[in-house]
Amino acid sequence: MEPHTLAPPGSGGGGGDSVDVPAPFRAALESLARVQPRPEIELKHIPAPVRLAPYAHAVGARVAEGEGDDEVEIASARFILLYDPAGHDAWHGTMRCVGYLSAATDEEMVDDAMFSEVAWSWLTDALAECGAASHAVGGTVTRTASTRFGDLAGPEHTVDVEMRASWTAADTDLERHLTAWLDVVGSAAGLPPPGVRLLGGDRSPGEVL
């Protein structure tokens, strides 16, 4: 797993050198650098959007099974921090967190009428459990079923869940917010609770339901 290190202040939005970075954004970056993901989740810095806010920072996450040629990615995600010192009416604040994830899930889940509500509760519950003070939370949960034909490699039938979410952080302790989002990624990937090992080593996506 690549180490999660603090990116140079001012990168990914805002421009200028480190002395130009507002203290709240710097504090948020420093708190993000303290996040220690569970072993199954790999973190890395990714390019941040430059037009959504004066300052931005982004982290990518992925969960994979197997090794080498047998490795299969079962979930990928992004966490983006946007900061506008002047505030933003739609955010009701100055610091906005944006999350996106895509994960393979159990084929039976696509027909579960409650799946979207339960998936959304992964986020609201994680924010509460991590003590991530937030408001103006919104987003979508999408389920898609695909069937491969002909010579296209891969499983014949796949079902994926996508979640797009955003919320306003009420403080600069973004460690809690990224930790909450990684909990959501773990739930979407079907990972057991931290410290719990599944018998037989088989992952059962959606089993946490």
Quick take:
This protein is an alpha+beta fold and 209 residues long.
What does this structure look like?
The two termini are 28 Å apart. The longest helix has 15 residues. Helix 1 packs across helix 3 and helix 2 packs antiparallel against helix 3. By secondary structure, this protein is an alpha+beta fold.
Low-confidence stretches: 1-17, 198-209
Strand arrangement, major sheet:
1-2-3-4-6-5
Main sheet: strands, sense, barrel: 6 strands, antiparallel
Number of strands: 6
- Write down the overall geometry: globular
Helical segment tally?
3
Assembly status: single chain
Q: H/E element string?
A: HEEEEHEEH
Give the amount of beta strand, in percent: 25-35%
Helical content class: 10-25%
Give the C-alpha Rg: 18 Å
Helix/strand class = alpha+beta
List keywords for this structure.
disordered N terminus, disordered C terminus, globular, 209 residues, six-stranded antiparallel sheet, 3 helices, single chain, alpha+beta
Q: Layout of helices and strands, plus pairs?
A:
Elements (H helix, E strand, L loop, with lengths): L22 H10 L8 E5 L9 E11 L6 E17 L4 E12 L10 H15 L4 E14 L9 E13 L4 H15 L21
Antiparallel strand pairs: 1-2, 2-3, 3-4, 4-6, 5-6
